[in-house]
Every structure is written in structure tokens, then in C-alpha cells.
Amino acid sequence: MASIVEGREVSALLDELTTMVGREDPYGHYTRLRELGPVLRDADGTLIVTRFTECQSVSRDHKLGKMPVELLPHLGLADWAEHPALYGYFTSLLGINPPDHTRLRRLVSSGFTVRRVQELRPATTRMIDEMIEAMAAAGTADFVSVFAFPLPCNVISELLGVPEADRAQFQHLVQDWSAVLDEITPEVLLKADPAAQAVRDYLAGLAAERRRHPRGDLMSAMVEHEEAGDRLTGDELLTMAGLLFAAGFETTTNLLSNGLAALLDHPGQRDALLADPAAAVEELLRFDSPVQNIDRTVLEPSTVAGVTLEPGQRIVAYTGAANRDPRRFTDPDRLDLGRTDNASLSFGGGIHYCLGAPMARLEAQIAFPRLLERLPGLRRVEGAERRDSLTIRGFDTLPVNTD
Ligand code: HEM
Description:
There is one protein chain. Helices cover 52% and strands 9% of the residues. The protein is α+β, with helices and mostly antiparallel strands. The chain has one domain: CATH 1.10.630.10. The chain has a 6-stranded mixed β-sheet with strand order 1-2-3-9-6-4, with helices on both faces. A hairpin with an 8-residue loop joins strand 11 and strand 12 (395-397). The protein is globular and about 55 Å long. Keywords: Heme, Iron, Metal-binding, Monooxygenase, Oxidoreductase.
């Protein structure tokens, strides 16, 4: 039976992950954490798993779930419902358990099937081609602001029905809001709360507009569910729209920028990308995932790697580390776009498995081959800045030159 590993080495490695050194390259730290043991404990009592098998079983175990809001006061968050940033997170799909999770997820999942998402292919391709033209004309540009943010933001906005003129403001609002995924402190909430409230107010206006004038978009469909009676309350509608909207670009932006950086750093892989873009995107997701960890709370007694888990215990699965576990992947630190055994944990697992995975895949599978084919001189230039976040891995800026 395995025991829990804790102490100075574990805490020091976890602390370093939160510094800029860890932000630049967490993978060396992950290797050391994985070798310490299957289940680690941080100084604050949180359990950590970093190996593939354990991360996968944590993501799939029905006895583990999202922290019930009744437990939030124990974390010093008795007033969580008064903070828009926390309310919008803890009451969303990402923060709730069955049966509410089952009911709400079923209501929106039909909007995100592979077939529905494939219908977005022509519009997505058009947007990509226009952005590539603009990049070519500009010469030097920040890839995040000219491509990686606007593409997924426009795609989810098209689906939801957010008009074009309103979209640009959301990049910073959503970044400020999602800072609560990393840590919940008064300083973080000072920026996160007004940002979350601004997103919610905007979506409330849009929902009101669709109640008056329904269209064929997802917001109109959600308004219909709301009006049909007890299936979706007005409050749930706004929380759901906020999550879909934010999750719809926050992470895909980082798949596009992490993926492009990896492609430009490995020019020898170009042919493999063009030969099989779908397999290549899976490998890019494995190699440098936009989401590096997922969080669970023990709801009923369970075990992981022989360690007993007690109700109320918090456990974090470092999926970004699991994706580089040599027990699961051959030569895991090598980017190999021809790799076929590359199913990673980047979209999570179990009942919270990413709803937007087909959409993120579609965008990346169209974008990367077109970028490399249309802009053969594309290269990175000085000045890239990594995002300061443990959970979300990406770039704040990724300057490139197209000459
Ligand atoms: C590369 C891009 C993306 C990555 C890496 C990603 C990653 C993830 C992960 C890891 C989870 C599970 C969290 C957990 O288990 O605690 C998740 C859930 C979710 N994602 Fe994504 N995501 C991406 C794109 C998107 C897009 C484009 C959308 C929406 C349009 C989206 C919507 C959601 C939603 C609604 C959930 C919550 C599902 C639930 O709890 O039932 N994601 N995502």
C-alpha cells in the first residue's frame, strides 16, 4: 500500500511552480514531483497526484467531485455568494455535482456535438483566412492579439450570438475573472469581481434582447429553455452563458499560442503536421496543455494508488505532468507530431470532460496547417511573455514575424 509523500522537497517544488521560473518551464519540476511518489501532500494539506494513471482515475472517480458550497466556509469563503467571480464559478458546470450538473449539462450539450460544431467549419475557415491575410500585411504582430484570442472569441460569440462590435472587451475581463482558478485572495477578487459582474451584466442584456427578438443562436435556445418552465432558471442561464463564453476562448487561445510556439520551435515537424493535422493537434495538446491541473473534493470515501481518501479532502490532479509521464508515453518530453498513441488528459475526464473539446479541436486543426502553408516565413521574434498562472498555461504575448 502506497503512503503519502510530504515535506520540504514537495512544498519547495510546488512553490517554485508558482514563480516565473516555473511558469517558463514547469516540466522539470513535474518530473521531480512524479518521481517522489504517486500521492503527495502540500503544506496546506491538499493532496497532489502527477502520474497519468492516478490523474486519470481522479478525473473519473464518481466519489470525487466539485467542492460542495457548504464546505466553502471552511476555506474562509463564507461570503462566496456575494462575490460575482466566485458565484459565477462555483454555481457553474465547473463547480457543481450531480444531479444539478447532469440536468444543466444535458441542456447545453446538444449545442456542442461534433456534428453541430462541424457546421461552424466554413465560417471558422473564413475567419482564419482573413486573420492570416491581416498578419501577412502587418509583418510583425503579437500572435495572441491578432489571432489566438480573436479566433476562438469570434467562434463562440457566433454560436452564442454576441455581436462582433462587442467582443474585444472580453479578453481582459475573462483573464481577470479566471485568476480565481489559481488563488482566491482579496487582491485577486478586487479585479475578478467587477470583471465577472461586467460579463454577467452584458449577457443579461443579450438574454433580454433575445427574449424580445429570438434568433437561431444558442442564447435564444437557452432563453427558450428558461421560458419553458422549470428546466433552466434565469440565474442558471446567465451562469451557463458566462461559463460557455469564458471557457470558449480562454483555453483555446492558449492551445493556439502554445501550439504555434511549439511548431515554430520544431521546424522539422512541419510535414507531419500537414500530413495529419488531427493527430498533430492531439500531440500539441499533450505536449503543452492550456489547462495544467484539475481540482476535486472527496465526496465519499475512496482510494487512489492505495491511499485512503476521506470526505472533504481536496485533491489536485496535475494533468500537465501526467501528459509527460514516461509510464504512459514513450519519450514524453519529445514533441512528435507523428505520434499516434497520444490521448492526453488535457480536456480532463469523467463527467466534467470538456464540453468544448470538438470546437477547440476544429479551430486548431484548421488554423495550424493554414498558418504554416500561407506564411512559410513565419517565425518567433523577441519579447514573448508567459502568462502568470499555474492552472492556465499560455502566453500574454507571442510576437511573430511573417516576412
Ligand atoms: C484547448 C481548449 C480547451 C481546453 C484545454 C479545455 C480544458 C478543459 C478541462 C480540463 C475541463 C475539465 C475541468 C475539470 O474536470 O475540472 C474543461 C471543462 C469545460 N470546458 Fe473546456 N477546454 C477547452 C476549450 C473549451 C471550449 C472551446 C469550450 C466552450 C465552448 C469549453 C467549455 C468547457 C465547459 C463548459 C466545461 C465544464 C464541463 C463540465 O463541468 O461538465 N472548453 N475544459
